[in-house]
Predict the 3D structure of the following.
Amino acid sequence: MKQKHIKLLAITSILALVSFAVQAQQSDDILNILVRKNVLTQQEADSIRSEQATREQKKRDKEKENQHNIFIGSRALQISGLVQARYQVFEQKNINDAFDLHRARLDAKGSITDKWSYEIYTEFAASVKLLDAYTTYKIAAFLKVTAGQFKIPFSYESLTPDSQLEFIDRSQAVEALAGRSKDIIGNQNGRDIGIQVSGDFIKVKDRYLLDYAFGVFNGAGYDVTTDNNNYKDIAVRLGVHVLKGLNFGGSFYGGEDIPAGNTQTQVRNRFGFDGRFMQGPLSLTTEYVHGTDASVQKQGWYAQAGYFVVWQKLQLVARYDTYNPNSKTVSARTRIYTTGANYVFNQWTRLEINYLNKREEKIQTPNNIIETQMQIAF
């Protein structure tokens, strides 16, 4: 038995060396010859073929895993990026149809040690902006400390990476109250500078039932080195994952700010709830966000659905999205009905088409939009 194993090992080793110079078919021919000459049994030849196939598959998997990674010394540097080229057709007569570069981003991240990681994420579309620049130290699964500039732990959709959105644009309420595009400090992409603790609790099989995040931030937004007041804002988020594929979340943001031209601070508070269900080709998501700026109450919500009619290739999507920047005035409310389709070419490239039917109380002029976007994420 031992001699048999030695013989198999020797022949396998020889074939491994030969494989550098010959193709798989040639190796298979050699095995067939050895079987005919009674050097190997058919069972031994099949065993060698199986071992060769396993090695080749592991090699292909390793090449696929590392094809976008660059390793420098003992520290891992992973380079990735995102390009989203968009074309918009506007029904409104005074706006010209146009191409634009929706997002063009480069991401560099890696691990300093097994517990210490970093990320630097930069936007190049329109103008160069530093989006994320932070480091995270993982003490345990239930306790990670992050410091620098990053997304505040608020809103499911705001925390969803841009490359993984099912629609070209985020919902109105999230853009206004989490991304803060209509906030008093302008569009901050939901980012700020500060420190955060986060983690996961109660692991069942391959998933955690609870996750949390708590952060303290300047409240001045991203790519800003100063704060206009001594108050610091806080953000808290709790996620619950009782069933596989069913997730719930709650978020709170509390802060103060001094609007331009004023000397007095005003409150800027937010809270929201979200839920998501994913089962096979179906995905359902809903989220409610409420905001208070001084005495002005703002609120909005969305509900969306996605379904792969061709698995992992063609997805149909639909969303109802409503937002009111002043709850005391019904005429300020805007509702958007979005329908669309996403075609996934591969894991890096997809084509998205959205039709936005807008119902704005203040504006009676038709201003619907058709958007097409090609995305490459590597």
Remarks:
- The first helix runs from residue 2 to 18.
